[in-house]
Amino acid sequence: MTTDWRPTASIETLRERARLLAEVRTFFAERDVLEVETPVLGHGGSTDVHLASLSLLATTPAGRARLWLQTSPEFHMKRLLVAGSGPIFQLARSFRDGEVGSRHNIEFTMLEWYRPGFSLDELIGETTALIHAVLGRDSGPLRRRRYRELFREALQLDPFAVELDVLRSTASERGGLDMNDAGRDGCLDLLMSLVIEPHLGREGPDVVVDYPASQAALARCHRDEEDGEWVASRFEVYLDGLELANGYDELTDVDEQLARFTEDNAARRQLGMSGVDIDRRLLAALAHGMPAGSGVALGMDRLIQLALGKASVAEVMAFSTLNC
Amino acid sequence: MANYSTNEFKGGLKVMLDGDPCAIVENEFVKPGKGQAFNRVKLRNLITGRVWERTFKSGESLEGADVMDLQMEFLYSDGDMWYFMKTDGSFEQYAVEKKALGDTTKWLKEQVAYTVTLWDDNAISVTPPNFIELEVIETDPGLKGDTAQGGSKPAALSSGAVVRVPLFINQGEVLKIDTRSGEYVSRA
To answer: 14-53 in B: which are within 8 Å (CB) of A?
Structure first.
């Protein structure tokens, strides 16, 4: 058998990819958003329980150190915001261990940008404009979908109020697997992935908002206007059944940030996973004071896949994880 | 057998599911924004041939199945069992039940090599070669000169299969047939 050396994308596709990346740069240049490049390696990593960070040992002037391949450029970019950069964007190589499939690749390109002073709604508007600029067409009117409504419509249950055992049996039944030892978020994640997500973004971008506070990650939380439930100030954009972007009204409170990092690492240990070094420099920057605002991370490979009508992210990458 | 975790699932891997040996057809990694990862897996049950779609939590594992595909020549049938012999020179024979043969019964011909799937050393399925040469034992008389019109008629073959053949084909001719589609390819 001969070793397959060929690229996973055609040269024609790579030309198109380059054109779309140039489109992104033009989009931000017209809006006075500064392009930045931040390190792929950092002394801290993402503690998120559902992200597997890769790390390596490097020889640095300070001695041997464990450095983490960034799962997104978020921490470094936030330090730039604190330093007074104003609005910034980056096309950043990001790494998530174990994530390989038609929509995933261990190493991928994240388009991430931050807008000090922007509300979540303003950023939703800009994200949709960026998506349409790259697609080169208007994919349809934007629909705002509340997390809770989606579950009510598709599954006739309220994700915030439903009893855990009802949620578990619904997840087990819909997923065809035993979810009786799973937590609330695990069950909700399964139902979101299998039942709700495939139908999202079929007639234009669907923007999902008001996630449970437990799924806030690095977003602020606020009280829901309807019933006072805590929800995350976070949005996700879906198009053609693909999750494209994840935006936050950014958490700027250093104590809250440290508490979430610590909780994550405690949860990791409980699950038998190793902890991830907390980014002390990010905490120091937040303590200095980060301007309020919103930020969003968009899977650039997926957007290019949609723009070019390809079936997988591998088809728009020179070499995928499987043949790099 | 070894256990395989979801991140080792790839097309063709043989695993045990609900007591039956299965082959992985497709493994799709799914993961919502910031949430837990799952794998949607399509598996073909090697005994029934049915395709199952199952969801696993990423990192879950399944026991491997002791399944092997071997080349074997068809020898004969005594009506109850069908006998095959390994083509590796060992002359080792296997008796195969009708259930395991399934549709392949209509493509059986002595001395032709078939792929026999063994699970724990028992034959569970038999796959014919993609192309096989079989004799026409019964069909309407051939029509002279009609080679381009594209009409067809049924023909019964020596193995028991009935296929559509062009009008010019006669009884006694040997034909090349595609066993996957059951279609006539050419005169042999």
So the answer is: 27-38, 40, 53
**Residue pLDDT, tens place only, A148-168:** 999 999 999 999 999 999 999
Token pair for A153: 């419509």
Is the ipTM of this structure higher than 0.90? no
Q: Judge whether A78 lies within some domain.
A: yes
Q: How many domains does chain A have?
A: 1
Contact of A273 with chain B, judged by CB distance below 8 Å, is answered with no
**Residue B141 pLDDT class (50, 70, 90 cuts):** confident
Q: What is the CATH number of the domain that holds A61?
A: 3.30.930.10
A322 touches chain B (CB under 8 A): no
Residue the block writes with tokens 């490097």 = A58
For residue A277, the enclosing domain spans 11-140+254-323
Q: What is the pLDDT of residues A199-232, one digit of tens each?
A: 999 999 999 999 999 888 788 999 988 778 899 9
CA trace torsion A127, A128, A129, A130 (10° rounding):
50
Asked if residue A238 is part of any domain, the answer here is no
A84 is a domain residue: yes
CB A239 within 8 A of CB A208: no
- pTM for the full model? 0.82
**Does the beta carbon of A189 lie under 8 angstroms from any beta carbon of chain B?**
yes
- Taking the CA of residue A42 and the nearest CA in chain B, the distance in Å comes to 21
Query: What confidence score (pLDDT) does residue B147 get?
Result: 58
Residue A187 lies in a domain: no
The answer for B 50-69 residues in CB contact with A (under 8 A) is 53-58
Q: Name the band, by pLDDT with cuts 50, 70 and 90, for residue B146.
A: low
Of A148, A165, A151, the closest CA to residue A225 belongs to: A148
- Pairing mode of beta strands A41-42, A63-69: antiparallel
Treating both helix axes as pointing N-terminal to C-terminal, what angle do A300-308 and A11-30 enclose, rounded to 10 degrees? 120
Does residue A21 sit at the B interface (CB-CB below 8 Å)? no
Distance from CA of B167 to the nearest CA of A (A): 43
Angle separating helix axes A120-135 and A11-30, nearest 10 degrees: 140
pLDDT digits (tens, 9 = 90+) for B32-86: 767 889 999 999 999 888 999 999 998 899 999 999 999 999 999 998 999 999 9
Q: How many helices (H) and strands (E) does chain A have?
A: 9, 12
Q: How far is CA A46 from CA A11, A137, A277, in A?
A: 34, 35, 8
How far away is chain B from the Cα of A303, in angstroms, using its nearest Cα?
Answer: 15
Contacts of B29 in chain A (CB under 8 A): 99-101, 103-104
